[in-house]
From TrEMBL:
GO terms for cellular component: cytosol; protein-DNA complex. PANTHER family: REGULATOR OF RPOS (PTHR48111), TRANSCRIPTIONAL REGULATORY PROTEIN BTSR (PTHR48111:SF3). InterPro entries: CheY-like_superfamily, LytTR_DNA-bd_dom, Sig_transdc_resp-reg_receiver, WalR-like. Signal peptide: none annotated. It holds the Pfam family Response_reg. Keywords: DNA-binding, Phosphoprotein, Two-component regulatory system. Residues 143-247 form the HTH LytTR-type domain. Residues 122-141 are annotated as: Disordered. This is Response regulator transcription factor.
Amino acid sequence: MNILVCDDEPLARERLSRMVKVAGHEVVAQASNGFQALEQVRLHRPDVVLLDIRMPEMNGIQCAQALLDLDVPPAVIFVTAFDQHAIDAFNTQAIGYLLKPISQQQLENALKRASKLNSAQVNSLQQHANASESPDRPARKHIAARTHRGVELIPIENIYYFLADQKYVTVRHSGGQVLIDETLKDLENEFHDRFIRIHRNALLAIPYLEGLEFVGTGQYQVRCRGINERLAVSRRHLPQLREKIHHI
């Protein structure tokens, strides 16, 4: 892929450029702020922009938002020393958020995800970005989670269930599980079209709902397609779940 590296620190740009080349990709241009990045993107049409956040004149968030106005925007991967900008970054449809100092493997994993971003997905991201400007903002397409690898994006369609435990929520997805600092109620309100409440501490993805199992003494558990785990179903939510299964 053709890649643009944008960072206001020359040494950081050079290090990233070397890592990109080791990964087998080409650095077509460099920039030291958002304005320069926009100019270089228009000149070179890179597939991916590796973008710092804190920069003079135009920061990375502003630059990424401006990139969305292009007919076919490049994929954006933020590379920054600051994790507090993650939510703002993902609202610009960035596909990655790496925390400095990044490793060669982290960069290659992020670039591998970027290489799977086909034109249909780009168009979908653009439509989502335009829709997010309206008062009735649609649900997110990803969940952001802080892990030992940095900040990860978990596609909503890959999530089996949300399980609350004290102040955190476990997100069980096709690649494993992560913890997020969000409430189950907020998640239920945002993703009510895709997830159904099965217990006071659990939301299940409707596409992965496989069936119910009776476990005795009036207790039921739900089978989840794709994994062997079973989740408890409360009596309060059993009627709604039965109705949903009947219409699948």
